[in-house]
Amino acid sequence: MNRSTTLGADDYVHTVRRHNSDPLALAAAIAASGQLTDYVVYEQPGHWYVAGNPIGAVTVGPGRLHTTLGGDHTESWTGTPWPRIRAALDRAPVPRWRAYGWACFELYRPDTASPDDVLAHFMVPGVELEITETTVHSRCYGAPFTLDLPDITATAPAPAPVPVGEVDTAYLRRVRHALDRIHHGEFHKVIMSRQVDVPFAVDMPASYVAVRRNNTPARSFLLDLGGWQAAGVSPETVLEADGAGLAATQPLAGTRARTGDAGHDRALRDALLTDPKEVYEHATSVRLAYDELDSLGSATRVSEFLTVKERGSVQHLASRVETLLPPEQSGWDALAAVFPAITASGIPKAPACAAIGDLEPGTRGLYSGTVVRADSTGVLDAALVLRAVYQRGGRSWLRAGAGVVTGSTPEREHEETCEKLACIAPYLVPARSHSAVRPR
């Protein structure tokens, strides 16, 4: 049964349609069907949001912000662009807007990017679908959108596992250099990452389904927006804001593998909880997350501390930090305070990010950035971009990192990157053309 109503107050047409499909497969099939352009799929517990066909966008480059919402407008920025992004979205031609988008790691340090780089891209969709276990809620701007529910009964394509275990000697050197800088007191922790090239073009929607079925993420995402394609299973949220003043972040730091053997995994979990290096790494991350949110809010607290979250092929030490924002602050201000995530940058953040720029080749792009879903009421949900496959400019790749602190060894950090890459690498589905892509 379909129901349709038009709410003239915000110029959106709302419909509700029942379905009996798997929501994950349905969301990916809609994304792959070509019915939407410039799309983002974003999973929150029990809900898959599929948004596309933008009515306008906000793009951010080094020192400049451009929007096509409410007219064509360009302005300069310094410091942090996050509140300006919110202000640009408020110029959308509808009052009750919703927005989806991404931000690169380099948005924190735009001086490391090329002048013409786009570091963040947000769009207000003309079509937004909310898929639950039984229904598809459609929200379309201006006119009804005739959604053709794709057939998802076909056999899933077979993945082509990508090997990730080859020793990366350049990565080992980077970790050694990072340890030297830690010993000289430059910073306490830094995340060193490495890239693994994928030797074929990736079918992103099919890979998203395969990866998601084999992982237990905090959030998941699939996007084709602003020149980036990515599919991932985020282990943690950078920020969650409920629009009523509560803001939270979920740092995960400290890692052990998951092997599938229950007894062995329990032993690894116990070792993780008692390892001084891992507990130190986690506790320092939680302390900085607390300080960052407390700089804006009040009644800041650690609502969950040193639990263990299972995330596909790995298990992490996890905590949750919450604060109450004052009326003059929004989730965008809180996102500015915590971005980039501590668990993908380092402590203190500024010198750690500078070291990442010094030691890692090239730029990170979407890796360790964020995918965001937000709306005009102040609700904001930002997932950390890790455990993902990336595709851009004819190239496909994976990337993973590990936290380097006093007590780290290059060999163990390399092993940890292999454990994290195993969340994604076995499940990549080649595009039908099987075309080779150039290493990045």
From TrEMBL:
Domain annotation Chorismate-utilising enzyme C-terminal: ranges: 170-420
Cofactor(s) required for function per UniProt: Mg(2+)
Organism of provenance: Nocardia fusca
UniProt xrefs under Pfam families: Chorismate_bind
Designated name of the protein: Salicylate synthase
InterPro entries (UniProt xref): ADC_synthase, Anth_synth_I-like, Chorismate_C, Salicylate_synthase
Keyword Membrane: no
Enzyme Commission number: 4.2.99.21
This protein's UniProt keywords: Lyase, Magnesium, Metal-binding
Coiled coil: none
EC main group: lyase
